[in-house]
Amino acid sequence: MKHYRPTQGTVWVFILCILIGAASPVFGESEKGEEKGERVMTISGGKEVSIEYTLKLEDQSVVDTNVGGEPLVYVQGSHQIIPGLEKAMEGMKTGENRQITVKPEEGYGKVEAEALVEVDKKQVPPDAQKVGAQLQGQNEQGQVFTARVLEVKDEKILLDFNHPLAGKTLYFDVKVLSVKEVQKGQEQTPQEVQ
């Protein structure tokens, strides 16, 4: 096996690289925004992602935020958050901020006419018989559902079983706090952004 001997020209190029920082990976320094020796990971399928977010509507009213609170943690590609947000975050890096717009089709869906149901007034508790009141119930399969009172008539009440954000374009300000490999055997419970 031949032993490599650097030429004088190679030594000068190496010294020049050190002076301008091009050889920094050789010494464990950062490359392209990576912090000293730490590898900055990007969001991709199967990675555990921790984010801080603020969700606004078109009129700039804040619907939800976790800024200053607990981060939202999910696994990319596992459909634990709305599809449009998950898709737009693919490729983001730790520390990156982004404004993301999610159309209804990739958020909470369009307003479905079938989800508007008229019921007898007697079926709704008296204190919830007002427009905007929220009702929560459970079906035979044990699934929890929420409905809002849309209209109160003489004998009937119109309930809306659509998600409150259905039909709305969502505006997210997102900051990626961390991206890491999912630990083997680690279970992740779904969280909902709303």
Number of helices: 2
> At CATH's second level, what is the architecture of the largest domain?
Roll
Q: Give the averaged pLDDT, no decimals.
A: 82
Multimeric organization: single chain
Largest β-sheet summary: 5 strands, antiparallel
Characterize the overall form: elongated
Question: Class of the largest domain, according to the CATH hierarchy?
Answer: Alpha Beta
The radius of gyration over CA amounts to: 26 Å
Number of strands: 9
Structure class: mainly beta
Low-confidence stretches: 1-35, 187-194
CATH topology of the largest domain: Chitinase A, domain 3
Notes on the protein architecture:
The protein is mainly beta and 194 residues long. It folds into 3 domains: 1-40, no CATH class; 47-108 and 166-181, Chitinase A, domain 3, CATH 3.10.50.40; 113-160, Thrombin, subunit H (Beta Barrel). 10% of the residues lie in helices and 31% in strands. The protein contains 2 helices and 9 strands; from the N terminus they run αβββαββββββ. The strands form 2 sheets. Strands 1, 2, 3, 4 and 9 form a 5-stranded antiparallel beta sheet that branches. Strands 5-8-7-6 form a 4-stranded antiparallel beta sheet, with no helix packed on it. A hairpin with a 3-residue loop joins strand 7 and strand 8. The relative contact order is 0.22. Mean pLDDT is 82; it is low at 1-35 and 187-194.
